[in-house]
Design brief:
Layout (H helix, E strand, L loop, with lengths): L1 H22 L10 E10 L2 E2 L5 E6 L5 E5 L5 E3 L8 E2 L1 E8 L4 H6 L10 H10 L10 H4 L1 E5 L2 E4 L1 E4 L7 E3 L1
Parallel strand pairs: 1-9, 1-10
Antiparallel strand pairs: 1-2, 1-5, 1-6, 3-4, 3-7, 7-8, 10-11
Length: about 170
């Protein structure tokens, strides 16, 4: 009898706590539908270099997700909230692999390179993709995240043409 009375008293409280905790907005303040994004990046038909980064930035708002490119050019975006990215339009840019600067600079402890133009030329010549893909303002890459699972394949070119999205 005491147990039944206790359950009657606590039951509504437990349901209220569950509803408040379970239905509140996510950490990022967005409570609408979300989508997960994965895809493949190629340049002139070949997989983009392992370790390159792909970054999605919301066209409106402050939602940003990124992912590292694997050996086969595939990536999966990671976002700070495990439910996925808020749906909407995103602009996309690429980032260089973390080991890229070291590959241009050569071994540590080597001679100092003082010819800045030579460094710049080597930097640009060895880039795994054209410089324009380093910024959302020049990449020409866009994607609309829909609720659920999204595939965002980007076919990049080394020429001055803008990359295109393939599905």
């Amino acid at each position: 009898m005491v147990q039944t009375d206790l359950m009657r008293a606590i039951g509504p409280l437990l349901i209220s706590v569950t509803l408040v905790v379970g239905c509140g907005p996510a950490v990022d303040g967005y409570s609408g539908p979300r989508g997960n994004v994965a895809g493949r990046l190629t340049i002139d038909g070949a997989a983009l270099r392992n370790g390159c980064q792909v970054v999605f930035m919301a066209a409106r708002g402050s939602f940003i997700a990124s992912g590292a490119v694997a050996e086969d050019g595939r990536y999966t975006l990671l976002y700070r909230v495990s439910q996925g990215l808020p749906v909407g339009d995103y602009v996309v840019q690429l980032g260089l692999p973390s080991d890229y600067a070291a590959s241009i600079a050569g071994p540590s402890g080597g001679p100092q390179v003082t010819d800045v133009s030579a460094i710049t030329k080597a930097w640009k010549a060895g880039m795994p993709f054209p410089e324009r893909y380093l910024a959302t303002s020049t990449s020409g890459l866009n994607f609309t995240v829909q609720p659920g699972t999204n595939t965002a394949d980007f076919e990049l070119t080394k020429s001055d043409q803008v990359g295109k999205i393939g599905k």
